[in-house]
Amino acid sequence: MSNDDKIYQKILTAIVEHQLPPGERLPEDKLSEAFGVSRTGIRKVLQRLALERFVVIQPNKGAHVNRPTRQESEEVLDSRIMLESLLIPSIAQQWTKKQSRLFRTMVEQEKQADLDKDMAKSIRLTAQFHYELAYLGHNQIIAEFIEQLCYRSSLVIAAYGSRDSVCCDSSDHVELLDLFDQGNVEQAQAWMTRHLTHVKESINLEGSNDGQVDFHQLFSDTQKQQ
Question: Residue 27: which domain range?
């Protein structure tokens, strides 16, 4: 893992685990000092996080942790509820034993992340499971849109969710794979709607945190590990 990847992982984990709350400013100079790297290196990491919508970068204002509004959060999750079930029939047509093995391996990785209490990794793997599944369908445009929705809902869960918002997913995903193996398309569609509705209901859109962050203390062990 490169140094940039390590810094990316550290900041992403801090966002997901609510150590860097929505709206928190991410000054390049303080992060540069905390990680012991150049501002250019920090800027690259922030740009990567911005592409995934975890961070917002504004000209002349710098970067801050994205703060999805209540309306945006609900619309993102409602869009997933509507769209992901629509792709189930075409996914089922492409389903093979090879696909089943591949996705079951992904579920095992999710379970391990849950056991390790790595919420950041759990959120990423859960999102990956859903958008990789969408790409098996015939409509690539919808699949690409679902991938973006997965990134955005990951931020919603990171900002307003709890471990329950994530940990329920890895065990539930096995049920969906079983339905695909059995060819139960209608039940798989109903499962997807129920599953994503549960995720939506598990988050608290009233959550907030306005505390001040000490970046050096938060990332104090990073330089020792490099």
Answer: 3-67+210-225
Looking at the fold, whether 161 and 97 belong to one and the same domain comes out as yes
Same domain, 175 and 79: yes
Q: Please give the sequence-ordered ranges of beta strands (E in DSSP) within the chain, or none if there are none.
A: 55-58, 62-65
Please tell me the pTM assigned to this model: 0.76
Total tally of structural domains belonging to the chain:
2
pLDDT digits (tens, 9 = 90+) for 56-75: 999 989 999 998 888 989 99
Do 102 and 168 reside in the same domain of the chain? yes
Residue 62 has what DSSP assignment? E
Q: 59 and 116: one domain?
A: no
Which residues touch 67 (CB under 8 Å, ≥6 apart)?
22, 23, 159
pLDDT 10s digits, 168-223: 555 689 999 999 999 999 999 999 999 999 888 888 876 555 556 788 888 876 55
Distance (Å, whole) CA 198 – CA 178: 19
Pair (19, 39) in one structural domain: yes
**Alpha carbon 22 to its chain's center:** 15
The set of long-range contacts for 108-115, using a CB threshold of 8 Å and a minimum separation of 24, is: 110/169, 110/170, 110/173, 111/170, 111/171, 113/170, 114/166, 114/167, 114/170
The amino acid at residue 214 is: D
Q: SS3 for 38?
A: coil
